Amino acid sequence: MSLVRLEGVTKQVTLPDESTLDILRGVDLAVSAGDHVAIVGRSGSGKSTLLNILGLLDLPTSGTAEFRGTPVAGIRRGRLDRMRGRDVGFVFQQFHLLAGRTALENVEMPLGYASGKQFWRRRELARAMLDRVGLAHRLDTPPERLSGGEQQRVAIARALVRRPALILADEPTGALDVETGAAVMALLDDIATESAAALVTITHDLHVAARARRHLRLADGVLSPVDLDRAFADTALGAVSA
After folding, report:
1. How far apart are CA 24 and CA 49, in angstroms?
2. Mean pLDDT of 154-169
3. Domains in the chain, CATH or no CATH each
């Protein structure tokens, strides 16, 4: 059974003049545990909208979206929120770390409030995840004193501290230099493999996409397979051609 499955999914929005804009058109996608899928496309192609539907943040206008075999449309919002908190980890281009809080405190946030023994268990989990991303020596450092690569590593640790089944990475290297970005993607790959999690990476960078085992292109709201070798040949800049 697929972890998440979309069938014939569309997404429309209503514009100020009351006309409608099609963002997604008949998207079919199945993602199972252990999959690593890259979805490439230009800005405005609908990538973030697709990611929001995969991550239970939004619902399609039509079509079927299922999570662990259950149609999402029939799940109440409170339960969806709990499922997302338990099963989905998000890594974004912008790190969204809390200024003035230490790296350790930022990573503890998804684990919720705890006291007594649970507090120390929560702290142990956060420490272990920061150690896994190579930041055991930066536990007490606030984000404003970390480099861009270190901030993204903290964001990854925060997203994965609950060991989600589905990792959604939205342009995770967009704010990083090439070398740091490659290291961050290698880290995401390794952690996803270790935990048998599904990893879906949204990117416009073909070099980032090349790390995945399955490659798709989203253009004008339509999702289709993409031949990366041909795409690399079509552009020397690494941007997806139209």
Report:
1. 8
2. 94
3. 4-234 (3.40.50.300)
Q: Would you say the pTM of this structure is higher than 0.70?
A: yes
* CA-derived radius of gyration, the chain: 18
Q: How far apart are CA 91 and CA 168, in angstroms?
A: 6
Q: Which two tokens stand for residue 195?
A: 């935990």
- Residue 235 DSSP SS3: coil
List, in order, residues 6 or more apart from 35 with CB less than 8 Å away: 3, 198, 199, 200, 213, 214
Are 37 and 201 in contact, with CB atoms under 8 Å apart? yes
- Nearest Cα to Cα of residue 164 among 237, 87, 92, 217: 87
| Contact criterion met (CB below 8 Å) for 56 and 83 | yes
Q: Which residues pair with 167 in a beta bridge?
A: 89, 199
Dig out the tokens for 119 from the structure.
């507090």
Task: Read off the amino acid at residue 43.
Answer: S
pLDDT at 237: 46
Q: The tokens of 96 are what?
A: 């969204």
